[in-house]
Amino acid sequence: MRRASSLKWLSVMRKLLAAISLRSESTKKSKKIVYGNVELPEGFDDPKNHKVRVTMWLDGDLLAELRKRAQEVGAGYQTYTQKLLRDAVFESDSFAKRLERVEKALKIKTG
């Protein structure tokens, strides 16, 4: 009796494996690969468009604050952190220019 149940189990497993292999073959055949020249959009090779994985250690309180602030503005904390870094690194304006922009935005007349 035990041999009959194991043979039945083996038969079921073979059918299952056959179904899986048929399914994977059908998906492989449906993919169409096209070779040739590809026109890349303008700005594709701009370094700003490429992401690079970086591992760094942050203090727990700093990470918690970044996550909290990101949630307040409705962004992911990594996106928010990247924006902060980008603003800090590439900010070439002097303090006076930034103050002038703020005053203009708030329509404050100085001088």
What is the gist of this entry?
This protein is an all-alpha fold and 111 residues long. The chain has helices at 2-30, 60-73, 77-90, 95-106.
Set down the secondary structure blueprint.
Blueprint: H1 2-30, H2 60-73, H3 77-90, H4 95-106
Helix pairs in contact: 2-3
Shape: elongated
User: How many beta-strand segments?
Assistant: 0
Q: Spans of 5+ residues with little confidence (pLDDT < 50)?
A: none
Q: What is the radius of gyration?
A: 29 Å
Give the topology string: H per helix, E per strand.
Answer: HHHH
Give the helix level as a range of percent.
Answer: 55-70%
The structure class reads: mainly alpha
Alpha-carbon distance between the termini? 101 Å
What does this protein structure show overall?
With 111 residues, this protein is an all-alpha fold. Helix content is 62%, strand content 0%. It has 4 helices and no strands. Helix 2 (60-73) packs across helix 3 (77-90). It is elongated. The model has no long low-confidence stretch (mean pLDDT 77).
Features:
111 residues
